[in-house]
Amino acid sequence: MTRMGFCLNLRPGTVEEYKRLHANVWPQVLEAIARANITNYSIFLKEPENLL
After folding, report:
1. Which parts of the chain have pLDDT scores under 50?
2. How far apart are CA 15 and CA 12, in angstroms?
3. Start-to-end C-alpha separation, the chain
């Protein structure tokens, strides 16, 4: 299996909101990820650059 990557910048001033939203993922989002057969993924936040 090939592992893919994608980088994006968070808008200035949105890091705390990003952390809050990702700390409590909605069950519907987890269900959608499972339905898409996504089973091995990672999200990293690089600070202070605010890169995902």
Report:
1. none
2. 7
3. 22
